Amino acid sequence: MVTLDDIHAARDRIAGMVRETPVKPAPGLSRLAGGPVWLKCEHRQETGAFKLRGAANAVARLGDVAGVTTASTGNHGRALAHAARAQGLAAVICVSRLVPQNKLDAIAALGAEARVIGASQDEAFEEARRLQREEGFALIPPFDHADVIAGQGTLGLEILRQVPDAAAIAVPLSGGGLLAGVALAAKSLNPAIRIIGISMERGAAMAASLKAGRPVEVEERQTLADSLGGGIGMRNRLTYPMVRELMDDLILLTEEEIAAGIRHLAQQDGETVEGAAAVGAGAILAGKLRADGPLVLILSGANIDPARHAAILRGQT
Predict the structure, then answer these.
(1) Catalytic annotation present for 72
(2) Residue 123: which of 146, 105, 97 has the closest Cα?
(3) Which candidate in 120, 188, 199, 300 is catalytic?
(4) Contact 38, 23 (CB under 8 A)
(5) Which of 30, 40, 51, 211 is labelled catalytic?
(6) Which of 69, 104, 150, 164 minimizes the number of CB atoms within 10 Å of its CB?
């Protein structure tokens, strides 16, 4: 299992590889939520998303390998490509055809191969496992991996240093690596803090698995929160039990609610984010999330296609 000591070690290990991202108040959302709301601007991270923390920690822990591989909905793949290039390693990022082109282009720009396989992250994972098995690549999963979780947990340490009186943290929820790491760090330092997972109604695999009481497969569907798509793995060892134990509440959003979050953050707070990063704002706007004390929203990524962002600002979803 992952421990607070692992997260502290990850913080020291990746200190020169990632940015400390700022927090800022969100006056409009604070009025709507009934209490102070802070935006943790992790979308300003080096690769445009929080994923660099976990990828950098995992790559830094590798020995002698032929290269690195993974299956990704985009942001983890970009982060892994960045971390691999810094270490002089080859990288093959396996993705499904649901991954937006702008994310494929960003992976290629870092010198990695974006290999499109099938219609789901699970199908893409089969190719990553083949590369591991037959070609000696190190497989670094996007969430269910101790070093990845510990790396994401450094974000929790950072949040509590910046907002020490935080009563709750709203975390975008997909495979659970971010929530597991942030929750472990935050609750280890402040057991009373609440961790609220937020996802989309379309194909939220962790939500379906928690409801079923075990990991289950879900159909991947097109969604504005594309970074929250994909399964959690039928053999999930770490994130499913950690999310089940550490998450206090779960909120699901419609596509229009996600779009409203994107628009609000752009128009009222000046922040351009992708759908996955806008779910906290969307939940407040929909009346599904209140601030009973200082509430921190993690803006997890900025990697949205500019044309899609412009359409959303015009009121199109």
Answers:
(1) no
(2) 97
(3) 300
(4) yes
(5) 51
(6) 164
